[in-house]
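User: Reviewer 2 asked us to show a designed sequence for the structure in our supplementary figure. I'm pasting the structure tokens here. Could you produce the per-position amino acids so we can include them in the response letter?
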């Protein structure tokens, strides 16, 4: 019958703690810490001497530590900041009303559901912190996300004032273009205004008119008059557009009577 011998080697952390007793400077600082005279030093739960919450390494152990770090995958992936962040914190302004300012982010890499969803789109109201969690797919384009934004957010809360996101400029540009197209706020040269304005008689709150948060509310006869004036402008511009289109098309045609 053969018996196998199992030897458990101590970790690098424990090796460093054991080596601290061989360094005269660290031994002295440990004694001062015990007397309460070393403010910047402390003792960890496992008996290691810490300087500003970091383990003190004996001078002759530096090479061993460097060799261990060079072979450790986790150590190579961790990039600890060594400088204070530049500039002071600039917090966002506090919204004046709920669901006027939101932040959005994407949770990706999730297990695929039965319907093929692998992404959760999180839209959070900056004021109330209430949120919507919208499932999606990693293959969705910015235009598709804009359509979901219309059906899931604008349908319930209206057009928002601002959206905070950490997405790149290319995604943001395509998202806004898709959102404007879905809302009908894109300018149409044929009618001289956006479809939303033609339909409702007022401009939709959009990135091009953020200052119109407190938009004018028209009631009764004023609303009827404003709507009638807008319709007359649309009719006039439609006639102008049709006349221009006809003049361009008639260049390559000839007049025939049957």
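Assistant: Here is a per-position design you can include in the supplement:
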């Amino acid at each position: 019958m053969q018996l196998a011998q199992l030897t458990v080697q101590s970790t690098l952390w424990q090796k460093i703690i054991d080596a601290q007793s061989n360094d005269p400077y660290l031994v002295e600082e440990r004694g001062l810490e015990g007397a309460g005279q070393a403010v910047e030093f402390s003792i960890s739960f496992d008996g290691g001497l810490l300087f500003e919450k970091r383990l003190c390494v004996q001078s002759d152990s530096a090479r061993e530590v460097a060799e261990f770090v060079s072979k450790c995958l986790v150590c190579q992936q961790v990039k600890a900041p060594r400088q204070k962040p530049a500039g002071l914190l600039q917090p966002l302004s506090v919204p004046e009303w709920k669901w006027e300012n939101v932040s959005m982010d994407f949770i990706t890499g999730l297990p695929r559901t039965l319907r093929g969803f692998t992404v959760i789109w999180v839209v959070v109201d900056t004021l109330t912190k209430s949120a919507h969690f919208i499932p999606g797919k990693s293959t969705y384009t910015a235009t598709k996300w804009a359509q979901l934004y219309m059906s899931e957010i604008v349908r319930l809360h209206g057009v928002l004032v601002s959206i905070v996101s950490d997405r790149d400029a290319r995604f943001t540009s395509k998202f806004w273009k898709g959102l404007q197209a879905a809302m009908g706020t894109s300018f149409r040269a044929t009618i001289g205004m956006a479809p939303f304005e033609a339909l409702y008689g007022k401009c939709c709150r959009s990135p091009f008119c953020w200052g119109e948060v407190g938009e004018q509310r028209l009631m009764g006869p004023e609303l009827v008059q404003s709507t009638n004036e807008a319709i007359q402008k649309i009719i006039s511009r439609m006639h102008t557009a049709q006349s221009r289109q006809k003049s361009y098309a008639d260049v390559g045609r000839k007049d025939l009577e049957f």
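For the response letter, you might also mention the following. Residues 12-76 form one domain. The first strand starts at residue 41 and ends at 43.
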